Amino acid sequence: MATVQHSQTLARKTSLTNIEKPEKSTLNSLLPANNVVVHAKSSAASPAVEAVNNAHNSWESCYYCPRENFKAVNEFVKHLRERHCTREGGSFVCRYGFNGVCPSLPLDGVSDRDYDAHVAKYHVNQQTREMPPEWSVFSAAQNLPAVLNDPSRGKQSNLFTKKWGVDFVERNHVPASPRIPEVTMNDFEKYMGKIGKRYKRHERLNSQQQAMTLEEASAAAVASKGTSGTLHSTATSQEINLSEIPEIFLKENLNLQHAPTFGQVFPNVMQSPSGAERKRTGRLLQEQLSHYLDIVEVKIAQQVAQKSAAFFHAMTSQDAIMCEMQEAAKRVKALRSSLGSLNETVVIDTFRVLRYAQRRQNFEEVVDKLCLMATVHKTQPMLQLLLGTQDYVAALDLIGTTQEILTQELIGVHCFKHLPMQLNEMEKLIDKMLTTEFERYATTDLNRPLSDVLKETDSVCAEEDKLVCIVMGLLRMKNFSFVEAYKDEAIVTIKAIIKQLVIEFIATSDAEICLTGAGEEAQSLTVGEWIALLAKATVALLTVLQRIQAVTHIMRQTIDAAAGGSCKAGGDNAVNLIDSEAFLTASDQTHVHEKLDELLAAVCHYCHERCANLVSQQSLEKTVATTEELAQLSSLVEDFGQGCELICGVASVPLKVAVKVQASRFANRFHSERKQKLALLLDTERWRQVDIPNEFQKIIDRIGENKEFSAAAAISNGPVANGHVGAVTSVANPVLLVESKPYTLVASALLLVQMLCEYCRCAQRLPIVAGYLSRNVVDLLRTFNSRSCQLVIGAGALRVAGLKTITSTNLALVSRALQLVLWLLPKIKSHFQSLDATAVAGFDIIERDYQGHIKEIENKIYGIVSDRVAAQLDSWDARPPIPSQCFRNISRHLVKLHEAIAPILPELQIHAIYGIVHRNFKDKLRKKLLDLNILNNGGPQHGVVTSELTFYMETLRTLKALPAPELDDSIRESIWTF
């Protein structure tokens, strides 16, 4: 009875499940639960069908899209795939759930087919529709910066907002953005009109497809009517679900003795008032439990049916496995028997042989240890032998090897426990011995007599092999302080040599000279004596520096050999100085080479300092070197500097500074003598023309052709003064021809030219003073310019030289002298620039000053004549006689001016002066005509003016004071142009 009731109940549930989707009978691939078709018109299921049709299907609307309603299942499935599904690679992830998360599908996604099965099972065939949870504060999703930066909330920056809330302060109103336009339905009209036709066609096709689906489902239902029993059982087995069984029956610890558990299993059993009711309740409970049991049995049967093939396969393969195991056991037994016999016949004897071989090896190692101990025991006698032959590197290598053997091979041997300490002491002793030997060698080598250099053949380094052994040992000890020790010894030797030279020089000198406390500085040496002493000192010091260079060269070769290379020990053949491997690293090699370079530079610098300090500053200030002495001193210092630079590769400064001091003092004395001489001559200058000696003409010609000043020594017999040139007066010319242009000069101008040539010749002979002399030339030219301006334009010559007046001739002579200097300036500048490129400052300024002075002289000349012409025109009146006395006086002034400047100034300058005078005359005459009210009307007064102008222009034509185009009679017309 219970079984029948259970079958009827299961049949009803199956019918209800199949009737839920009458329109989806053809979607078998999407909905695997609807593979069974039953009669929807059966009389037993008609009440259930009506109940299902009245219920709301889960696919008719979307939970999360409230405006979306669907008429068919395929529309709902399409909506889920398009709106609530994401594709990640080849996997599909269902998002149909709260917050876009489906509760029944993994987040990592499934395949396309599994996704369709999932949609059909959990979303299309969903029996009960669970409403989405009610929104709460935990449903809100917002990031923290957006909440904190909410512009509608007040600032929470003080105590009031923290304690009393954000409503305590004002809120900021956020206006709508003007950049975002307002979107209305009118904006979608174009799109709706375009897509409307496609949407209507889509709806029509969907309706046709749904009609075809219903027809196919009806035909399939009629065709499967005869096999409903089999399909019903299959559907029943497929639709059985354990969710109908209460959870309490599925627990492992089901205990009916527990009262609450019993109450849940048998609810209201003992509470029925009557026995009939209690029996009926118990019957119903029994049927329900039988139903649960049937579900479990069906599930078990399904699992057994699914795994039946595996069960049969296991049973069939068990016999084969047993046979294989028996065969394997037989083979293992045979293998063990073979291994036993092999062990007895082969392995035991072989291992015995190996054990004997190991014992023999151990004995040999013991013998080797004993031999090694005997060798180590002989270390100290061997060290004595190596040190006796000065093989320091081998001795140090032996000590190092012995220490390494003691720490690695013979560790723990008690008889050698004191040997490492003894070896360390021996190593320290060798280090001290090497240092002492090196100092003794350096002292002996550096203090050898200087005359021995002539007897040496190959090099200036004595006992090279000994030096190589000592340096190699010091390098092996990593003791690089020998370079500083050698530098100190070299400095002491240099100091002793200079002291000895000073003592010898004092002994041979007749002057009374006393030494200072240092013994290197003589108080009363003249420049000549200093040069003689310096000559001897430089020769001796260069000899010592060559010895030092030779020693450092051997040191460099030894260092390279210690670093793994080969060196040349005094010959042309490469000699390997060490038999062992290189022990000096590349960084140590570079470090020692740098120290040797510093040694040479320091010793050369010290030599320069000592040479510069041979004579005290007080002694040098008493005398000044002559040109010959300065040339000799400069050559001596230059040779010594080049020799030192070849040795150390660095130029030394102290001695050159001392020479430059003497050069500056020589240049200052040279300049002061000539500046004083020029000043005296300018003060006594009468500013008259002098004859030009032929020697001056030759000098100017040579300067103009070759720009050379070397022949300026031709004029050396006496100074130029007051119109004659000492004894050089055999041949003279009235003018100086400069590039075929005559120059009429005064005596001071000739002396200035002679001085400038002397400056250039001295700079060429002594390039060391070129810079000083260049500045002195600028100062000399500035002095001549300023003093001549004071004497002539400023009328200082009236008081100094006793002149009665400053005439135009005097002014013209000064102007011509300045023009000659302007002609010489570019050549002098080029001469000094070839000697010292930085010694031409100030020449451009001097050139501008001379040009300005010449302009002032021209203004002074035509100013004198213009004033006299203006004075005559002021007293002139347009009446006979013609020419009037005023115009006669004007003509006489013009003639006198021409007589004064014509023999001196060039024609172009004369034209420029007379041009200015002529313009001033016309301006003054126009003003006078306006004052006299004389008009260009052909009257008597007009005729008088024309006659006067004709006489004036005739005078200018006679003098040729203006260019030819300006000497016509156009003035008679232009004078009336006001």
TrEMBL record:
<keyword id="KW-0175">Coiled coil</keyword>
<dbReference type="InterPro" id="IPR039745">
    <property type="entry name" value="Vps54"/>
</dbReference>
<dbReference type="InterPro" id="IPR012501">
    <property type="entry name" value="Vps54_C"/>
</dbReference>
<dbReference type="GO" id="GO:0042147">
    <property type="term" value="P:retrograde transport, endosome to Golgi"/>
</dbReference>
<feature type="domain" description="Vacuolar protein sorting-associated protein 54 N-terminal">
    <location>
        <begin position="287"/>
        <end position="441"/>
    </location>
</feature>
<dbReference type="GO" id="GO:0005829">
    <property type="term" value="C:cytosol"/>
</dbReference>
<keyword id="KW-0653">Protein transport</keyword>
<feature type="domain" description="Vacuolar protein sorting-associated protein 54 C-terminal">
    <location>
        <begin position="741"/>
        <end position="868"/>
    </location>
</feature>
<dbReference type="GO" id="GO:0000938">
    <property type="term" value="C:GARP complex"/>
</dbReference>
<dbReference type="GO" id="GO:0015031">
    <property type="term" value="P:protein transport"/>
</dbReference>
<feature type="region of interest" description="Disordered">
    <location>
        <begin position="1"/>
        <end position="21"/>
    </location>
</feature>
<dbReference type="GO" id="GO:0019905">
    <property type="term" value="F:syntaxin binding"/>
</dbReference>
<keyword id="KW-0333">Golgi apparatus</keyword>
<dbReference type="Pfam" id="PF07928">
    <property type="entry name" value="Vps54"/>
</dbReference>
<dbReference type="GO" id="GO:0006896">
    <property type="term" value="P:Golgi to vacuole transport"/>
</dbReference>
<dbReference type="Pfam" id="PF10475">
    <property type="entry name" value="Vps54_N"/>
</dbReference>
<keyword id="KW-0813">Transport</keyword>
<dbReference type="InterPro" id="IPR019515">
    <property type="entry name" value="VPS54_N"/>
</dbReference>
<feature type="compositionally biased region" description="Polar residues">
    <location>
        <begin position="1"/>
        <end position="18"/>
    </location>
</feature>
<comment type="similarity">
    <text>Belongs to the VPS54 family.</text>
</comment>
<keyword id="KW-0597">Phosphoprotein</keyword>
<protein>
    <recommendedName>
        <fullName>Vacuolar protein sorting-associated protein 54</fullName>
    </recommendedName>
</protein>
